[in-house]
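User: Please fill in residues for this 206-position structure.
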């Protein structure tokens, strides 16, 4: 998914930090269902929907509600009139949200690419950038967090259990199949070690 934002800059919510390196974007977005939230703080429908989306996101990612955060990311693409409006809106939203910087022309590129003509709009994407749902606003309103399971199945995410043995600081996967390959490699090494131990024990017995 980071490929969608290659060469672009995203902002970390409620901080001045930019998330722009390939590694940072990979850690934030790869192997996740990604929501692109197109909205404006001044839009009445957005003001009504945004608290629902915030609750939706927290129910799936906050440790207060779930033992393990769902593989879900969100990038806010604003139509706010001023940078202050965008900043004030994001301050009231989850810290894990990312945002396209105010005034960045990339926002218009995303609107055209995903045919967003009105707000609020939530485009749901697979890790490879393919669209799962063109606008999930109604689905989120109707089903709440239950709709994530459908998206997860459509996205064919790699279970993060494969990644638990990895050092997060060295997590620089080149593809979503890397964890499977690494797991197989570790299993093969364990088998070789056990085989060698049995051979050595056999030599000692003889």
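Assistant: Residues filled in for all 206 positions:
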């Amino acid at each position: 998914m980071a490929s969608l934002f290659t060469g672009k800059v995203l902002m970390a919510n409620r901080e001045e930090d930019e998330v722009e390196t390939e590694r940072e974007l990979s850690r934030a977005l790869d192997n996740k269902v990604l929501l692109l939230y197109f909205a404006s703080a001044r839009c009445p429908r957005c003001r009504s929907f945004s608290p629902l989306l915030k609750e939706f996101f927290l129910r799936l990612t906050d440790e207060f509600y779930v033992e393990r955060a769902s593989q879900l990311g969100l990038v806010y693409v604003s139509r706010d009139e001023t940078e202050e409006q965008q900043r004030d809106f994001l301050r009231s939203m989850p810290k894990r949200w990312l945002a396209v910087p105010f005034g960045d022309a990339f926002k218009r590129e995303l609107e055209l690419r995903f045919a967003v003509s009105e707000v609020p709009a939530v485009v749901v994407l697979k890790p490879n950038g393919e669209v799962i749902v063109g606008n999930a606003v109604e689905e989120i309103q109707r089903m709440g967090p239950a709709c994530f399971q459908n998206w997860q199945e459509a996205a064919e995410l790699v279970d993060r259990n494969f990644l638990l043995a990895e050092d997060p600081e060295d997590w620089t996967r080149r593809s979503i199949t890397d964890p499977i390959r690494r797991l197989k490699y570790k299993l093969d090494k364990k088998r070789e070690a056990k085989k060698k131990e049995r051979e050595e024990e056999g030599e000692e017995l003889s």
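For context: The two ends are 57 Å apart (CA to CA).
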